[in-house]
Amino acid sequence: MYDYTIVGGGILGLASAYRLLQERPGASLVVLEKEPGLARHQTGHNSGVIHAGVYYQPGSLKARLCKEGAERTIRFCEDRGIPYERCGKLIVATDADEVERLKGLEERVIANGLDYERISADRMKEIEPNVAGMAALLVHATGIVDYSQICEKFAEDVRSAGGEIRTGQTVTGIVERDSEITVETTSDTFTARTLVVCAGLQGDRLAMMSGIDIDFRVLPFRGEYYEVNRQRANLVKRLIYPVPDPSLPFLGVHLTRHIDGSLSVGPNAVLSFGRETYSGNYPVPQDMADMMRFPGFYKLMARFAAAGLYELRGSISKSVYLERCRKYCPALTLNDLEPKEPGIRAQTVSADGNLVDDFLFLETARSLHVCNAPSPAATSALPIADEIVSRALRKAN
């Protein structure tokens, strides 16, 4: 019997395993991942941004965890020799309405205690010659990293501390008793005193497998990217973001530098017909059936019908996608945009059709389920792991 079983080999599962073994040296622990390798889903398909916490309500848990998480992520990278860069984020207003909204964003940046600079159009031309706009905010603390590399280091430390990591372990059943909880997989059985589930796109299904009565579902949203031709990857020196549109539930298409020297454009956000359909947006019968049976799906689609059509146009037409980018980076051309594998975001949606925007933990006597970990979950992985570990340790006592 193990002391702890953790389901999920993404950044939250691995960070939790890493922190548990720091808090309980010598504890027996196993991490179960259904894929043949680690960080194969949201962690391995995200933008690689170390977020500063620009958009979050001042004083909120998200704002606090993001700022703390960014600092701890950078310290971990420095300690373990992981490449990162604090390149900064330029949030660009391209018309009068956006300039007005930028003022509100600036107030939030100040309230969150972030180091920033207000940028005029002339100054923008000096620091980013290929970017066009009327005004901007430059947030210095934003950075870039490869979160898969962070996961590899977490995994090394887990194994060094005596923990196990077992890949190719798809969970098929969870059985809880008074003194133990058993996870059945396609090839084995694992019994522990405490179970932690960080299953991302499969989080709702594993919660139900544990017998939890949930009033939400995970709906997958496909984030489609293009990679900018490598010969043009030096178009910008920083991350270039638009001013958020309050009518859209996501941030909008932006230019993202990556730590490997590449530059990407995206993502948009369109409903995915499957939870793990990276090669194409084809329907997966079980995933589609789960959506169609959930009343919150129809309410969400009705609420965001206009936003959905807006995103769909960009998905269907490369030219439309390009024009949205050219609004603040007119130097881009169709020939610059090359295919890039999409990401699929696990968006938890309530029964009344609202996007669940905060962290959501559900528990049984022997298990803890992380049912929603929205952006900036990768940036905030270490402080989120502290919360997970605190709850898991209370179960063990």
What does this structure look like?
- The chain has 397 residues and is an alpha+beta fold.
- The chain has helices spanning 11-23, 42-45, 61-80, 96-111, 121-127, 147-160, 203-209, 285-292, 295-303, 305-316, 318-326, 381-396, and strands at 2-7, 29-33, 49-50, 84-85, 89-93, 116-120, 135-139, 143-145, 164-167, 171-176, 181-185, 189-197, 216-223, 226-228, 239-242, 254-257, 263-266, 270-271, 337-339, 343-350, 360-363, 367-372.
- Strands 1, 2, 9, 10, 11, 12, 21 and 22 form an 8-stranded mixed β-sheet that branches. Strands 6-7-5-15 form a 4-stranded mixed β-sheet.
- Strand 21 (360-363) and strand 22 form a beta hairpin.
Quick structural overview:
The protein has helices at residues 11-23, 42-45, 61-80, 96-111, 121-127, 147-160, 203-209, 285-292, 295-303, 305-316, 318-326, 381-396; strands at residues 2-7, 29-33, 49-50, 84-85, 89-93, 116-120, 135-139, 143-145, 164-167, 171-176, 181-185, 189-197, 216-223, 226-228, 239-242, 254-257, 263-266, 270-271, 337-339, 343-350, 360-363, 367-372. It is α+β, with helices and mostly antiparallel strands and 397 residues long. It has a domain at 1-84 and 144-215 and 356-397: FAD/NAD(P)-binding domain, CATH 3.50.50.
